[in-house]
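Replying to the earlier thread about multi-chain prediction with a worked example.

Input:
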Amino acid sequence: MTLGPGARWLLRVATALTLTFVYVPLVIIALYAFNESRIQAWPIEGLTLEWFGRALDNPGARDALWLSLRAALGATALALVLGTLASLAVARYRFFGRETISFLVILPIALPGIVTGMALNATFNTTGISLGLLTIVVGHATFCIVVVYNNAVARLRRTSQHLEEASADLGADAWQTFRHITFPQLRSALLAGALLAFALSFDEVIVTTFTAGPDQTLPIWILSNLSRPNQLPVVNVVAVVLILLSTIPVYVATRLSRDTGAVSPTAGAAQAAGAR
Amino acid sequence: MAEAAAAPDVRLRGLRKLYGEVVAVDGVDLDVGRGEFFTMLGPSGSGKTTTLRLIAGFERPDAGTVLLRGLDVTGEPPYAREVNTVFQDYALFPHMSVEENVAYGLKIRRVPRPERRTRVEQALATVRLSGYGGRRPAQLSGGQRQRVALARALVNQPQVLLLDEPLGALDLKLRQEMQIELKRIQREVGITFVYVTHDQDEALTMSDRVAVFNEGRIEQIGPPAEVYEHPVTEFVAGFVGVSNLLERNGRTISVRPEKIRILREGDRPDPTAHVETGTIREVVYAGMATRYLVELEDGGSLTVAVQNLETTSAQALEARGRSVRLEWRPEHMLTLETRGEKEHG
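Result:
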């Protein structure tokens, strides 16, 4: 496709606007984290690392970070096991209702979080499961599974089924074939999926508000401290940490899965929407 | 035990395989003897590859049995069968080196490391790839990958080696080299080969026996010369060699192009030969030989191949439109069964 100079200019402006629109607020938050003054106003009076120390000493923020990390790790682990198994079933076996299952696995990422949250909350209350780390993990796993599943299915569809047949032909049973052949083929796709799942879980708010009970994950902690002027500088610092902790895995995942096809968490949503 | 020793390496009885409504393999019976180079020849969709996959165990038949050396393995998974497969796309493990690929089967079977190493080296030497052990499949040419696939299968010393169009992805020259190479390897290792191809030249060149597949059934089994010179059905006559069919007295007959002689003016026909007259409609000069398409007065047309012993291309091409007499010996004229007859017989 060739573009005229006008169109090219327009695209440049649009790109610049988009990036500005998305990233300028993030830069402002990052700057406020180093702001000497408690009051958020321009221009910034001076720079300080004081708030980082305060954030570190803040037991609420520390507990929240710890809970978020455990929840994200738990949800990612659960998603890795279930997402991989589902992808193997869908990509490697023919069975009745396969397309439906594929659709149902992808659907949760397109469902409004508030609905998922409500539904889970109602279920936990009805069954008498007390809210806490476990329920957060289950709540996050609903959409983390999709990311792992999408990455794994895309990879499996691109690798020849003959590899697994060749392995069986050479004497390997199903488990040996998975360990020596299928898993090494899947490894980078699974890692990419896991990193994305981790990032998604780490900054999730809506489902978490319904499944966390009295516990606070880092995003929830931010939400509840935002309205307290005293805490605002510390919140800014936590926000910067959150940005970093979500950016790094996504960056690594993108690099890892350059060749898998579906990578982004939104690809799942688009696929699910298209399937409707 | 005596019985087992006498049993053929592969015996298929009444093998049937359906994919939904489609019958892929429709009652196949065959025996492959020890050390034989057996080829399953047919167009795509004729059931030859599915039959191979049924022998390997990748597919389960809907009816019939698969016996390997007298042992019923119909219900056994691929890893419990003493056969190995060379895939059309080679299916080399991309994350392993050539050496690791070839050693895979031995490693799975827990062959001790020193023995593994010797056998891998031997196998690589057999396919003339010594010194390539450290490379990755992606660093090899198509022909080399093909050899690795072969070594990976041979190293396990299977009772039967199954080959699914192994030369299909190679260019013509390499394919011809590999045909000779495969034949040499088969003689050297003495393993039974079951070979799938749609290429009749390949089948005729390499095989001890050929089974011609069509629509899930075997139309004819026999040595290459027999299948070529005495095709029993119209399909075999057409698929193996040039289709040269005529309707005479309500029967279909076939004559191979190289068995027909064009008589020159003044030539006296052999009194015992069959003679027909016709007109040359097309002349195709093909280097070694010239092919003439002759339209016959009694109906139908035949392709005649004449070796270019003294003819030049100009002389050959001049012949277009000329009326000629053709003769062939009655024993080269074959009466064919139609499919219907075959099915009832």
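Chain A has one domain: 56-275.

Feel free to reuse this layout for your own posts.
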